[in-house]
Amino acid sequence: MMNKKHSPLKGLLILVGGLLYAGVALAASTQNAPGSACVATSGQALTARADGEAENQSASLVTAICPTERPIGTGVTTTNLSGTVFVVDQNAGANVCCRAVSKNPDGTKINGTWSCSSGSSSSYQTLNVASISDTYTFSSFYLECQVPAISGGNASRIQMYRAIQN
């Protein structure tokens, strides 16, 4: 009968192999954040709701930046940003639109294409934000959204967003 004891070296190799595998997995990053993390940059302010969503209760379009943390470092630097934004569009005349953006300290920006809701509804809609790429490690990534004005007493809002980086 064979002895089923494991050697300490075998255990160490399994641990190191697992850590190396985990290091590779860190090269991709997915973050969920509540809509209330988004900050208005123009127009009126967004109103944070008790459920973590952010809505536009003003009579003007609001542009918002939804921040992401960009991993930088050996084996974990990301160069691509895409995302998913869950929105409620209650304005029959305008859509909620979002895109990915990368901004360099020198002012250079890479703007992705807009992804917009379709029609007004009290139910959520999912916006799939197209990927952008920026290899400069000193650029920051964020999602930018335009939330239309209140309409008929109903506010459009950003429920939550998911930033996907690799």
From TrEMBL:
Keywords of this protein's UniProt record, alphabetized? Signal
Q: Which residues form the signal peptide?
A: 1-27
* Official protein name in the record: Ig-like domain-containing protein
Q: Which organism is it from?
A: Polyangium jinanense
